[in-house]
Amino acid sequence: MGTHDTRNPCTKLCRYDAADRCIGCFRTRAEVKHWKRLPDETKAAINARIAAGGGTVSRKDGKRARKLDKKIRKLEAKLATLRLRRAELEGPGLKAAD
């Protein structure tokens, strides 16, 4: 039995950036998908890499980020509706000044 840190670093903020890394725990999509089947040495190496890079996003910060994402989606939907209304008011002959 080793002394490796093999805990799952998931923070429940599962969203991926352009480099295909989770923005919550900084694992790759493949690492997340196969975590349970990875050998302990590999898990420990991944956790060491994450710790060296500054660690994971805390659960509290992750929850706050999810709330902000939800607000952003609502505002984007509202903005799209307002842009449609504006386009209807301007008519087909006028251009929008975005």
UniProtKB/TrEMBL annotation:
Matching InterPro entries: DUF1289
Question: What highest taxon heads this organism's lineage?
Answer: Bacteria
Q: Which Pfam families match?
A: DUF1289 (PF06945)
Which named protein is this?
A: DUF1289 domain-containing protein
Species of origin: Azospirillum isscasi
